[in-house]
């Protein structure tokens, strides 16, 4: 009997130890399940997304600031697009050309080529009173406007010139001068502190004195000497010349 009692006690101790071990094992799975749950909540928690938002926001703001510091306006005055191409040389050389079946004014063609090359916003200088569609009346009106120093009212307006640092300005040479609508444009807007880069299409007179006229009308602006002059015989095949010139401006 005395031998049986120690054996019973030993057996009870073994059972107790097994019970404790079982209890520990039953609680173990709860710990990793909580860890997994916590990690899932942290990965989708608002704090995590907020921590990356300022970096993205600051980066975007910086990019926008850099873009705005080099923001380009490409303003141009062009011949009416449906003028008969016969005899247009008297005003500004080959002022109408065809591109992919579309009739374009030469300055419009140059302006769009510049935009395709370096970017920027296109702005066509248009007048309230339309120009004649026939060549001879158009020549006469251009001469009359010049002699009267007319300032045709513009039908298009710029909303915010402050966003632009550079103005690429294109026009045909009309009677050795700026077209009168370009005078209106330059007198309506103040481009002080900006760079103006002219380009011209012509029938043989080049810029005449139009670059100096632009500088006089915009004394607060810097008128670039890196200009582009395209003569009558070169308009049709000028695309590569325009691309090279646009790239030389260092604005892209």
Description:
With 252 residues, the chain is of the alpha/beta class. It has a single domain, classed as Flavodoxin domain (Rossmann fold, 3-Layer(aba) Sandwich), CATH 3.40.50. The protein has helices at 4-27, 30-43, 46-69, 89-92, 106-118, 135-148, 180-188, 210-217, 239-248, and strands spanning 72-76, 96-99, 102-105, 121-124, 166-172, 195-202, 222-223, 228-231. Helix 5 (106-118) packs across helix 9. The longest helix has 24 residues, at 4-27. 27% of the residues are buried. Residues 1-6, 13-69 and 87-94 have low confidence and may be disordered.
Short recap of the structure:
The protein is an alpha/beta fold and 252 residues long. Helix content is 48%, strand content 15%. The strands form 2 sheets. Strands 1, 4, 5, 6, 7 and 8 form a 6-stranded parallel beta sheet that branches. It has a two-stranded antiparallel ribbon with strand order 2-3.
List the helices and strands and how they pair.
Layout: H1 4-27, H2 30-43, H3 46-69, E1 72-76, H4 89-92, E2 96-99, E3 102-105, H5 106-118, E4 121-124, H6 135-148, E5 166-172, H7 180-188, E6 195-202, H8 210-217, E7 222-223, E8 228-231, H9 239-248
Parallel strand pairs: 1-4, 1-5, 5-6, 6-7, 6-8
Antiparallel strand pairs: 2-3
Biased composition (Low complexity): 37-64
Protein name: Flavodoxin-like domain-containing protein
Keywords: Signal
